[in-house]
Amino acid sequence: MTATHLRQHVLPAVKSLVVKVGTNALCDAEGRLDEAAVESLCSQLLELRERDVQVTLVASGAVGAGMAELGLATRPKDVPTLQATAAVGQRVLMQDFGQRLSPAGLHIGQVLVTAEDFPLRERFLNIRNTLLSLHRLGVLPIINENDATAVYELRCGDNDLIAAHVAAMLSADALVLLTTVDAVLDNGRPLDVIEEVNDETMALVENSKSALGSGGMGTKLQAARLTIRAGGIAVIANAREPRILPRLLDGEPLGTVFVPAERKLSSRRRWLAGPSEPAGTLLVDAGAAHALLNDGKSLLAIGVTSAEGDFSEGDVVRVQDSSGAEIARGLTNYSAGDLAKIQGQRSDAIEAILGESPYDEVIHRDNLVLV
Question: Which of 169, 195, 198, 298 is 20–30 Å from 225 (CA)?
Fold first, then answer.
């Protein structure tokens, strides 16, 4: 799929969009909330609403907004002060968005999350249901990591990955990561298109972070990789470019576009391929690996050579080939204890071994995703 096709045909057809805007895109060089930048973003959100594009916004900047409110000259270095500053900044951000969007009839709803919410299926579904309900009510969800409690995220900057997980849970058509550079750069040259995020792509990233932001291009590339693997298109572009969002959806050659996988995964499979946390590992023989990778088959007990971990029926497990490489991830129909008894056995022998045979498959194809 060429960049021209993506820009002229795929992006203009987008109807569900997740937009992530970073701290530096919303704050000025001194760390204060940049009112012109916020106004520009809100104007674009209203324009997209007129086009019937469903937008979910993931907004960083709570710490920067809190710094401006509290008159802090530099970003705090200790975690408790960071958390307190973010708590102040959250109110400032939401108030600013609300004052600009509500008079135009677009109400906002704040949703605070942490990276820990996404691997847990119940929390994942609860967040998804909340976001879908907000959209049904015509409300713009504005999501941010819960900086007041999420110590790890404050240190690492995970809103890019949170945006990718949100795009996955909503089965969004596209993810746009807005930053302060025009595109992904290769020796200073902007890249129009990236077909695959691999080691070579990651090598383009400079290991640097801004004074205000807590993330970097590395997490944006990881977020893009999660999105395109699930079948969505991803874009990294400059938030300061006038009307960047409408112009991207008009097909203009802005930013770097990432080529999506040919097959678009369901929300469940996106969760399995992305934030799900495996409770154990199944090792399979060459025949089972081939059947999974090439024939679209379910995983049967006869192909399992060993199991690791203390998992229960319905848990997520990773599937590894004989070399130890992860090839798939899925929901197991059998606990670790039962699987230890039936591994390597034919499906028609399960009842005699366990006293029942509730499933022919250890992992059904519908509950499995290749990774």
Answer: 298
